[in-house]
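W.,

You were right to be curious about this one. When I first looked at the sequence I had no strong expectations either way, so I just let the prediction run and decided to look at it fresh. Below is the sequence, 203 residues in total, followed by the output.
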Amino acid sequence: MSISSLSAGLTGASPTLPTVGATAAVAALSDRTGATPLSDQLDAYRHLSARWRSAGPAERMALAGALTESPFAQRAQATVNAFTRAAWAGADAQPPAPEEQMLKAFDALSEDDQRIVSALLTEGTGRTASPADYRGRLKAAFDDAAAKVATRLPDTITLSEEARARLAAREAPTPVQASGQIGDVSPRPEIAAALAAYAKVGG
């Protein structure tokens, strides 16, 4: 298949796509008038994506422009990218924060953008989700994460007998001399002799 044959018929009436052909699909994705229904454009995008996956190198080159550079492809990419950025809760986020953020990001989309996101992010899964189905999945993931956090037992540390003994020894009070200084209270003859010698020199 050549690029020219794929690109044929880009102008003129927008097709209805119950059974999508490559030329009709390219035309649907390339429509700038807004006359092609979003459902037809999504069908066309899915059709060309599936065809691209099984195509040879030459046909992939012919399909690449429609899948990456057509008006609909650019809109779809921008919509999905904006959604994924809004859904990012941060690297340090702990459940259920990531799941909650994704649900909020989806709810903030327009109706048409929800249709694009739900269709394209489930592309290739065997069943493309409707916005209601996709939101149901996000809500179920959030509810599951929240329930797990609510029932999670607090983390505990169990010390062995040896470890407890060592910890107790470290926490034992240090002997205190009458002067209030912390240290060894046992006699130190060598220190006493040094102090006496120093006293004589000083005298």
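Here's what jumped out at me. The longest helix spans residues 131-151. And, maybe more interesting for your project: Residues 79-151 form one domain.

Coffee later to discuss?

I.
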